[in-house]
Amino acid sequence: MKHINKLVLVALGATMFNCSQDFDHPVEDIQITSGDANFSKYIALGNSLTSGYRDNALFKSGQENSYPNIMAGQMKAAGGGEFKIPYVPNDIGGFSDLKDKNGDLVYLGKLNLKIEGGALTPVPSAPGGVFDNVAAAGPYQNMGVPGAKSYHLVAPGYGNPAGLKTEPATANPYFVRFSNSAATSVIEQAVAQKPTFFSYWIGNNDVLGYATSGGVGVDHNETKNLDPRTYGTNDISNVNVVKSTINDGLKALVATGAKGVIANIPSVTAIPYFTTVPGTPITGLSDAQVAALMSAQAYGKYNAGLGQAKSAGLLTDAEYQQRLIKFTAGSAINGAVIVDKDLKNLSALGLPNYRQTTSKDLIVLTALSLLKQGGGTQTALEDKYVLTEKETAKAEAAVAKYNTAIAELATAYNLALVDAYTEMQKLSSKSGIKYYGQTYTTTFVSGGAFSLDGVHLTGNGYAIVANMFIDAVNKKYHSNLRNVYPGGYPGIAIP
């Protein structure tokens, strides 16, 4: 499977070089103003993207380069005040003393590029230290909580330490770290600070868990379930839950007199986590390999069983063709064998739910190592490693519904709106987004914008997002905050 090895080398063997150009140096004769806004007490609310999470962990330098901190830095020229961050006390992240019921670590340290098997590969670090509580040094203005969904921001007790020990957990350790009360919610703690301006970016996780788990979850837009207390980690939240809980948060914030900016949700499937591995990743098979895979001891037996099921009228010809396993040697590109839970159940005949992927399936980034070890050929990839075309459609439909709701709320509360969906589509295009001749894309590693986890951004990427927010704020409130130069922020470190 030469294609797979090449994929790893191409995807991981390049990086972006930062430019030292001073993009945000103030022009002496331009007066920076806040316009109709007041930036003296700016508070940022959201999830991991707001916190500065990157490389699969929350750590100090990532927090320093979060988009809210970048924005707060630009606001200082227009009367912006202190912007405190609940810093992790190391540059690794993770917690060495938080384990699951099996005794396994839940929060590892950040990913680093290392050479494994002759290729650069993201490898997790050991946790950087024990769980710490920094509430006493608060309050904090960056209130981004990794893992938070829309309804979590208004949930009382989301920062209660006791909630970390329940099954399932009712609290989030990242909020527990800086929560000043076991009973409070994220929104209540923000409102207590009497903000003059806020940013609000939430909703990604209401669908992202479903996508990254390979569609292992329930779509509550189908079930009509409006009780988030019953939702699983990987479920898609009902749009009415998302809208109502965001509305609750915004209503409380604007009641203080604060103005603000809200962002919609990018496509959850247009990120390197889903676009790095091709949908049909198997090529370079030898004649001997194909013969072994198609033998009666391998997929030949499965194909014969499908033929019998078709003859018995249990499968249509279309279903038979969809499930038939076929490999071709040489330069031909083949789909990977996967388990598809949505296929007709033929387990009574001893037939698993196997088929091969098509170009419309999304194989997740973490499947790379499995493909190199014979996953998708000798063994089928589990459902969690593939977001099928049908599952992708569910995720994208949810994003569209959320974004309609967010746009309505932006209008209702007269807020600036960041069209993150459209801007991230630009980033995911071949032309990408350019700054002073430097092009940024969503291409894994070499695109510069996304970190090693394929979901969260680099410092370059967060700077691009900061500019999106700044542009929306300037347009709405007639301020003239300056953009920043993304190349001046850290990208991916190459060993």
Q: In the residues, how many domains can be counted?
A: 2
Indicate the proportion of strand residues.
5-15%
Q: Whole-number average pLDDT?
A: 93
Number of helices: 17
* Shape type: globular
Q: At CATH's second level, what is the architecture of the largest domain? A: 3-Layer(aba) Sandwich
Strand tally, please?
Answer: 15
Describe this entry's structure for a reader:
With 495 residues, the protein is of the alpha/beta class. The chain has two domains: 2-276 and 391-488, SGNH hydrolase (Rossmann fold), CATH 3.40.50; 287-363, no CATH class. Helices cover 31% and strands 12% of the residues. The protein has 17 helices and 15 strands. Strands 6-1-7-8-13 form a five-stranded parallel beta sheet, with helices on both faces. Strands 2-3 form a two-stranded antiparallel sheet. The protein starts with a helix and ends in an 18-residue tail after the last helix. The relative contact order is 0.17. Residues 1-26 have low confidence and may be disordered.
Layout of SSEs?
Blueprint: H1 2-12, E1 42-46, H2 48-51, H3 60-64, H4 67-75, E2 95-99, E3 105-107, E4 109-116, E5 119-125, E6 142-144, H5 173-176, H6 186-191, E7 197-201, H7 205-212, H8 220-223, H9 239-254, E8 259-263, H10 272-275, H11 287-293, H12 299-311, H13 317-323, E9 337-339, E10 354-356, E11 362-363, H14 368-372, E12 386-387, H15 389-412, E13 416-418, H16 420-428, E14 433-435, E15 438-440, H17 459-477
Parallel strand pairs: 1-6, 1-7, 7-8, 8-13
Antiparallel strand pairs: 2-3, 4-5, 9-10, 11-12, 14-15
Helix pairs in contact: 4-17, 7-15, 9-15
